[in-house]
Amino acid sequence: MSQKSQQIDLASLSAAQLNSIKKQLDDELEHLTNSFSQLRAAQAKFRECLRSIKSGVEEKVEGNPILVPLTTSLYVPGTLADTEKVIVDVGTGFYVEKTTKDALSFYEAKIEEIGMNLKDLEKIVNGKSGNLNAVEEVLRQKMLVSSEKQAA
Predict the structure, then answer these.
(1) DSSP of 63-111, one letter per residue?
(2) How does pLDDT run across 92-115, given as a tens digit for each residue?
(3) Which intervals of the chain form a coiled coil (predicted)?
């Protein structure tokens, strides 16, 4: 589904219409910025998973006591029974057993996918910011003209 962008002559709009557009753009930018932050956090989580597999699942760790994370702040003692297979959270509460090699590939692919999404989202945010700046500039000019008319 493709969207065709409409061009509107901002100078032809009233101050009230410009304020409405400005508020809409502010809201969209806030939402997009939050989404950007959430994607960055997810990417950091996947990087941490990748690091954990690379450094924590080794032959020398097998059978030794380790701390197993149940949540981000709750760990329980355990031992690593197998260094060749790990349980991977594939999303929405589903876990899959994978080989360490497959798990590394899975997390690397996720990191790359999120990176591409972040680049796309950054372009959108920059475009919206440019639109917001244009609306603010026209609104500022209209306010100046309006205040000059009242002064005269």
Answers:
(1) TSEEEEESSSS-EEEEEB--SSEEEEEEETTEEEEEEHHHHHHHHHHHH
(2) 889 999 999 999 999 999 999 999
(3) 15-42
Q: Which two tokens stand for residue 18?
A: 């410009």
- Read off the tokens for 66: 């380790």
- Residue 50: what residue type? L
DSSP-assigned beta bridge partners for residue 69: 75
Residues composing the chain: 152
User: Cα(51)–Cα(15) distance, rounded to whole angstroms?
Assistant: 53
CB contact set of 139 (below 8 Å; sequence gap of 6+): 15, 18, 19, 22
Q: Rounded to an integer, what distance in angstroms lies between the CA atom of residue 108 and that of residue 114? A: 10
pTM over 0.90? The answer is no
> What is the Cα–Cα distance from 86 to 102, expressed in whole angstroms?
9
Report CA torsion sign: 111, 117, 119, 125. negative
d(CA 13, CA 21): 10
What structural domains does the chain harbor?
A: 18-151 (1.10.287.370)
